[in-house]
Write a structure and sequence with these properties.
Elements (H helix, E strand, L loop, with lengths): L19 E5 L3 H13 L3 E6 L1 H6 L8 E5 L5 H17 L2 E6 L4 H7 L6 E4 L3 H14 L10 H27 L25 H4 L9 H13 L12 H15 L3 E2 H8 L3 H13 L3 E5 L7 E5 L1 H14 L1 H5 L2
Helix pairs in contact: 1-5, 5-6, 8-9, 9-10, 10-11
């Protein structure tokens, strides 16, 4: 699918200084696409090269945004990515990392400080959306002055654009299919509302126990069965599916990798990763480092999320959940 020709104003800080970008990718064609995308987005390209240049660790200005493509990182690349994550975190820049599903856990474990955007087997439209989100998140940028509602609306819009682009990309390759909707998916990208929190009088009561993990798994199985008969986008609810999966894991005393959680979400990995980031920021999920291997990380329910899930299951009841 041809890339749309958008014209953007020069991306600059409030003082008018152009925002710089560095790109590291071994695939020359992909690197060329990334260069075109950052140019169209109004950024100034400071440096572009292969992963070997990132691993060399030469002192240079990386700019306000760094794009890295590492589909199959080896030990040296992982070490370089860890150093880059720390450097980006200290500088206040933004990091976008694309990888493969096979190496997602490895790459996720290397990036614990900078809160990067992760892209998995990304199409070009997803990279363009990631650039827009990075621009919105940069400190002291005009988009930071938007209200929270405006920012959420912007994120919803970019998500819808991504879904449309993904669908068009599939149609372009396969010729389309019966039952495929022409518009964006039903998935909405938004922060969990304040309403999920327990009422003050409930907080003082003892928390009910979490339900049997087998019941939670049954609910998840029923939800996934719908995709056999209906377009899965109709019921896309990644936040809830991930909450259910982590609830069952907490009862089972099992650890959940980011790859496993992406699969449980029922949406594309890149979308799931955006949700995971939102849920961590909202205090519902917690990133837990692996004590045995600092390059690995797991996702768990926070205590307040576990409390809310326990109260939900207690209020709704086992019989009603079994029919969900």
């Amino acid at each position: 699918m041809a890339q749309a020709d958008f014209a953007y104003a020069l991306a600059a800080d409030p003082a008018g200084i152009p925002l710089g970008v560095s790109i590291f990718a071994d695939d020359a064609r992909l690197r060329g696409d990334m260069e075109d995308d950052v140019a169209q987005a109004g950024f100034t390209l400071l440096h572009t090269g292969g992963l070997d240049e990132l691993m060399a660790g030469h002192a240079r200005s990386l700019g306000e945004l760094v794009l890295v493509d590492c589909p199959q990182p080896d030990g040296k690349a992982m070490a370089a990515l860890t150093r880059l994550d720390e450097r980006v975190s200290r500088s206040g820049a933004r990091l976008i990392v694309s990888t493969s599903m096979e190496y997602l856990d490895t790459v996720f474990g290397c990036c614990s400080q900078s809160k990067p955007q992760f892209l998995v087997n990304a199409i070009r439209a997803e990279r363009v959306i990631a650039l827009g989100r990075a621009l919105a998140d940069l400190p002291n940028m005009r988009l930071r002055e938007l209200s929270e509602d405006d920012r959420l609306n912007l994120l919803r819009l970019t998500e819808q654009v991504g879904r449309i682009a993904e669908r068009l990309d599939r149609m372009d390759k396969s010729g389309g299919g019966w039952g495929q909707r022409a518009g964006g998916g039903a998935f909405r990208f938004e922060s969990p509302s304040e309403g999920w929190r327990a009422e003050p009088e409930l907080i003082r009561k003892p928390r009910p126990p979490l339900p049997d993990a087998r019941l939670v798994r049954q609910v998840l199985a029923h939800r996934r069965a719908r995709a056999k008969f209906f377009d899965g986008d109709l019921f896309a609810d990644p936040a809830w599916d991930m909450l259910l999966d982590l609830t069952a894991a907490r009862v089972e005393h099992a650890r959940v990798s980011v790859t496993s959680l992406c699969i449980a979400s029922g949406v594309p990995p890149t979308t799931a990763l955006r949700w995971i980031g939102q849920m961590v920021d909202a205090g519902l999920f917690v990133r837990v480092e692996d004590d045995a291997d600092r390059r690995r990380a797991f996702i768990e329910l926070s205590d307040k999320a576990a409390d809310a899930m326990a109260r939900f299951f207690a209020e709704v009841g086992k019989d009603a959940l079994a029919m969900a």
